[in-house]
């Protein structure tokens, strides 16, 4: 597994939560990308990596799709309620 060389960015607040939830569910990025496609969000592996590293802005519709693909609430994804 490759580790990031740079510290997290500041473009979004959900990137680290996406990684934590995805890993807690035993999901690899490739599987997560496939789940995102099934809920109507088609993003590239590079784009997902940048999102998770907080180097990419996240659109509101993407937050909804990501929460759905991870099977969590938007509030949980935003860190507003415990898992």
Automatic annotation (TrEMBL):
Q: Could you tell me which residue ranges the HTH cro/C1-type domain spans?
A: 18-77
Source species, domain of life: Bacteria
**Which InterPro entries did the record assign?**
Cro/C1-type_HTH (IPR001387), Lambda_DNA-bd_dom_sf (IPR010982)
Which Pfam families does the record match to this protein? HTH_3
What is the name listed in the Swiss-Prot or TrEMBL entry for this protein? HTH cro/C1-type domain-containing protein
Annotated organism of origin: Gordoniibacillus kamchatkensis
